[in-house]
Request: fold
Amino acid sequence: MTAAGAEAIAVALAGTGAEVRPAEPSDVVGGVLPSCVASPATVDQAAGVMAAAAGLDLAVVPRGSGDTISWGWPPARCDVVADLSGMDQVLEYAAGDLVVKVQAGVRLGQLAEILAEKGQRLALDGPPGVTVGGAVARNAAGPLRLRYGLPRDLLIGITIVRPDGALAHAGGKVVKNVAGYDLGKLFAGSQGTLGLIVETTFRLHPLPDLSAYVIEEYRESAAAAEAVLAAAASPLQPSAVELERARVGGPIRVATLLEGTPSGVSARAERMRTLLGRSAETMMAAPDWWGRTGEASPSGMTTVVAGGTLVRVAFWAAELRPVLDAIDTVAGEAGVAVSVGGSAGAGVLYALLAAGQDPGQVAVFVRALRAATGHAAGPDGGGLARGSVVVLTAPAAVLEAADPWGPVPSLGLMRAVKQQFDPGHLMSPGRGPGGI
Amino acid sequence: MGTPLAASPDNGAPTGACAALIPTLEGICGADHVISEPRELKTYECDGLTAHRTAPALVVLPEEAEQVAAIVRACAEAGVPFVARGSGTGLSGGALPRSDGVLIVTSRMRRVLEVDPRSRRAIVEPGVTNLAVSKAVEPYGFFYAPDPSSQVVCSVGGNVAENSGGAHCLKHGFTVHHVTGLEIVTPDGELTWLGDGTGVSPGYDLLGAFTGSEGTLGIVTKVVVKLTPLPEMVRTLLAAFESTSQGGTAVSGIIGAGIVPAAIEMMDALAIEAAEAAVHCNYPAGAGAVLVVELDGPASEVEAEAAAVRERCEQAGAGEIRSADDPADRARIWAGRKSAFAAVGRISPAYIVQDGVVPRTALSGILGRIAELSSAREGVRVANVFHAGDGNLHPLVLFDDRIEGAGEAAEEVSGAILDLCIEAGGSITGEHGVGVDKAKYMPKMFGPTDLDTMQFLRCAFNPRNLCNPGKVFPTPRLCGEVPGVRHGPPPAVAAGELEQF
Ligand SMILES: Cc1cc2nc3c(=O)[nH]c(=O)nc-3n(C[C@H](O)[C@H](O)[C@H](O)COP(=O)(O)OP(=O)(O)OC[C@H]3O[C@@H](n4cnc5c(N)ncnc54)[C@H](O)[C@@H]3O)c2cc1C
Ligand SMILES: Cc1cc2nc3c(=O)[nH]c(=O)nc-3n(C[C@H](O)[C@H](O)[C@H](O)COP(=O)(O)OP(=O)(O)OC[C@H]3O[C@@H](n4cnc5c(N)ncnc54)[C@H](O)[C@@H]3O)c2cc1C
Reply:
């Protein structure tokens, strides 16, 4: 991009009313320095930015808090960062309807405070500093996913700006609604590749009166897996069943979260202790490793320390023990140090490989784990994959040696969807599966 | 919709492209499973919404996913439209056949292929009935949570297409929350899986987008469902009130107390009268409204919540409150509610079942306005049955079809109720879908760009629009027309042009 080009871009975008400034080194996206950062304050400004960018054939990457903006494949091109963190208004809060409509830049923590005043919550336990737009765009969730699902399950309405600058809505502000296609589902997890998420409407849940954590430690993966499966299938209705193993071959801690009325929770916790084992303990606060993917930085954000690798392993819950064992074996063979944690009861684990390890060996670990769990080759021919091993973030050298996405079912249909929404390939080009 | 590709002669036997397909389809499914006899075709001319009727040119009854794929490929090659049908209980004409097309019926695809209790998953074929899934997994201590009232007959494939919910969706969610994998046949005849059964499959959530697409994006041939542990305790409460507004106050109290019951249902005086006439449900005499609240979960929670629910109902002015734990007693409480639709037949010669949604807190106001609407029309009465927890109304518009103009008046009231729902910020359908019946209301709820953008999805899956054409959207979009100029929506496409393909 020439300097004159950058100036022309700035002029065109400024005409939209959005705040526009030249990009700084801290605005880099996966090593790519954009030309400028546009920060719309309104939906119309956001639409204007997209229309102007499309008119100039500029590639756009949306940004929320920027916490994980460089995760995954770098964009093939990035001219403009559309920074949505300034769109931080709560638009409509109907406590009696258990529904809230917010702009995409609202932070989870900010929203939680407002909802807590009415005894309610958005059942999405992400880091407080991230934006709802970012959480939806990643479809990322913490421990509560076992009971409440992912952002896509809580999202009931969405406003998007298409890559051509057109504004579109889907869903609405009532929980029960089957009118039209549910574009919210498509945008949840779209990772900035289909358009901008500018407004979101969520269904809410009451804050529980009491929460208790029942925790037990196991030496063997088999015993830990049995405990996790029993807890998740029990009628005690846990909100979360989490697991942590700080090092390969080390002890495994399992914690379940019970939420409800004070009398209900204490009775359930007692029974959950019996279910988990002799030395299970009940605590009123979460263990320090709860819901932590990677290392929590002081700001409470989930940043994997630069140079670290975070791998998400998804599987059918019955496979928990084989998956834990495969991680152990494969890490041993690759000679890498791995810590494992996550929503084992829901069939999701995160493997963290700390910074400073040989990228070649980290890539070996990823590929070998795919092979060991049966997710190396795509089940083409129409088979059911039953799981995946996805690299969420890793140093560039690792990403080059191991496709972060791995095999993705129905990639052809995904390409067709991308082609419809973004025929010019201007939205976060190259970041999706198969280089979408 | 434009000129049919292959018009049927007066005797209804297939001609042209459809007739030419018969040998191919017989080769795929066997001659016994291809229906072309006009009398037999008539069985399939409508779904649960009998107002719309069209006999298909052909019906095929495949037994395997590969057969469905081969049928779709044959249709695609011949340019013949095709429509999937499960059990035909849909209430929006979603499975309405095309006179120039093939109806693909899944009633022979009824196997439960796998139950994996440890993973809390099962894999079923699309023709399996909703209730059969719960029955198959009950021995393991699980159930399949979405429970449309039609669950004895409706198919899981139909549930996926409609994103069906049931009375218990307030707490447990809809089909989309309980399906983690779909094997589909794409509209060009390819078998592929959306999602991998885990719920966190990489890439776009095509599974979520497909669910609720009313058969317009492809045909489901296998479904991975999530299994939910059977609740330890279920308690059903019945509370009688003088009026629906008192009942509404009780609902607000319950929600305000931080309780999410499995179900909260309300019936007004007219609906109670009908139910009483039909099934003698013995609801408290003289009630202006009854509330049915069901709580499920761990026993200790249910006890605590039930006490709070009772208290809120009393505060709102409830007269009698009944409570039941054992299945037979609970069924007695539900009997009146469950019979309500059919029961109005006892007090009215004809009726229309409407399905609309308003924000829950707008319920009282809307009920008042519905009453105004019906009192303004001679011979039209409205009985209200609704899912009070989530604002999903099922007004039953009663009329006498022997009286000239009564049907039109009822239609008007029914349509005006949807206008009220839209005005209140709600939806034109909470569970019955858009189908053919409500396509004309879509532009009232969504703008032209919204509808155009939704059709991006249709164009990605079903660019030739052969798969269930004419449903959901009032105006089809031409998919070849890529919006090259990126300013504003492309010009609207006139209905009918589509046949140019
Ligand atoms: C417990 C836990 C589990 C997690 N699991 C996962 C996981 O499984 N997968 C995963 O990817 N991440 C995961 N994360 C990380 C999580 O995605 C991020 O913490 C969060 O989503 C980042 O939000 P942000 O506002 O910082 O967005 P950013 O980091 O700024 O952006 C994140 C992504 O979303 C896009 N984006 C942001 N805002 C918008 C918008 N308004 N419209 C369109 N696109 C937008 C960006 O282009 C980028 O691709 C997890 C985090 C936690 C705490
Ligand atoms: C008495 C009664 C009560 C009802 N109660 C409820 C209720 O409580 N909640 C609720 O949500 N609905 C309810 N319904 C509506 C209806 O039962 C549901 O929409 C149900 O999911 C339809 O299933 P079906 O198998 O009958 O589908 P059909 O009517 O055969 O088809 C419905 C739609 O699904 C498509 N379809 C069917 N099979 C497939 C497939 N394999 N692949 C792709 N598309 C397919 C069809 O093309 C059509 O568009 C009720 C209906 C009746 C008659």
Observations:
- Confidence is low (pLDDT under 50) at residues 1-8, 482-501 of chain B.
- The longest strand of chain B covers residues 233-241.
